[in-house]
Amino acid sequence: MDLSTVTEVVREPADPPGAQWRDGDAFLAGGTWLFSDQQPHLRRLIDLMPLGWDTLTPSDSGLEIGAMCTIRDLYAFPAPADWTAAALFTTSCEAFLASFKVWNTATVGGNICMSLPAGPMITMTVALEATYTLRSPDGSERVVDAADFVIGNNANILTPGEVLRKIDIPAGALRKRHTHRRFTLTKLGRSTIFIIATQTQDDDDLLLTITAGTTRPVRLAFDSLPDADGLADRIGDLPDELWFDDPNGSPDHRRHLALYYAEEIRAELASGVPA
């Protein structure tokens, strides 16, 4: 879609790009959402692609993902053999309501910063205990837990001119056992709920991440695998207003799915079947 109110595109941004920020600006990453709808409040775009923040850098400490890394490149990443939970990269990329053509352009950071309940890069990074590095207009940086970044439907903690620079996933999380559940109303539809569970190898802890069904990510941590009632109680204690309501599912439906799938996951992990 043409953005008829935009009169300028900054093709050679400063670093930090927020140094150029003014009212009516938007950062341009892949643009797959930005150009999909009218944006009458916008006057200028700041293109982040020339900054080259698109690398995938593995190390002994984990994986650094540049915010401009495309979904296609993450999907194709050849992870080390002992990073068993890296299979969630594939799972999460395939959870996009998007064609392969969108994958070629859409970015990991863009999906996170859209901060929609069904953002699969949010699900993946929260479940894998990632941190985000945010760069401010003055060049200073802050590091935040992925679980604390999204605060509501299409809402996050970014301040004006601040940008997501990179995502870091720790190696310890990438070596965990994992399983997931996802429900959609149609085979290739938007997620009604997306749940990922991870567990330390040779341990019985549980990290359960619930997204898409909630307005922000929910991550429930257990030192040991809970019984069915204990798990249900933790989910039941989530506030009513946290459950998302849209044409893909009512809050009651999503709460029901969370309880149902969480118990399936608990039983599966108890059996020792997951990766």
Automatic annotation (TrEMBL):
<dbReference type="GO" id="GO:0071949">
    <property type="term" value="F:FAD binding"/>
</dbReference>
<dbReference type="InterPro" id="IPR016166">
    <property type="entry name" value="FAD-bd_PCMH"/>
</dbReference>
<dbReference type="InterPro" id="IPR051312">
    <property type="entry name" value="Diverse_Substr_Oxidored"/>
</dbReference>
<dbReference type="GO" id="GO:0016491">
    <property type="term" value="F:oxidoreductase activity"/>
</dbReference>
<dbReference type="InterPro" id="IPR036318">
    <property type="entry name" value="FAD-bd_PCMH-like_sf"/>
</dbReference>
<dbReference type="Pfam" id="PF00941">
    <property type="entry name" value="FAD_binding_5"/>
</dbReference>
<dbReference type="InterPro" id="IPR002346">
    <property type="entry name" value="Mopterin_DH_FAD-bd"/>
</dbReference>
<feature type="domain" description="FAD-binding PCMH-type">
    <location>
        <begin position="1"/>
        <end position="174"/>
    </location>
</feature>
<protein>
    <submittedName>
        <fullName>FAD-binding molybdopterin dehydrogenase</fullName>
    </submittedName>
</protein>
<dbReference type="InterPro" id="IPR016169">
    <property type="entry name" value="FAD-bd_PCMH_sub2"/>
</dbReference>
